[in-house]
Amino acid sequence: MALALDLLKAEHVGVRKLRNHLFELLKENNPLVITERGHPTKIMFDYEEILELLDVLDELSDPEVVAAVVEGRKAIAAGAKGVAATDLIEKYKTKK
Question: What is the mean pLDDT of each run of 10 residues along the chain (96 residues)?
């Protein structure tokens, strides 16, 4: 997930620097890990990325979705050929 990679690469910013340079940091539109005394306490992400993450979490709370993922992983482990994610996305885009 791109969000997890963004978090790993995120700049760590102390509270004082955040307070003094908030406008400049927000203009950069990069995720920020906000620290207090060197310890991470908060994370700032793009609004759209958080909405996407919440959608994924909602889907993963559905037992049918989880069962389908488990079944798919078993099938791939058994040698089944998967479908490219781009093909799947295009297939469902046209159905809407």
Answer: 75 94 90 93 89 86 87 89 75 64
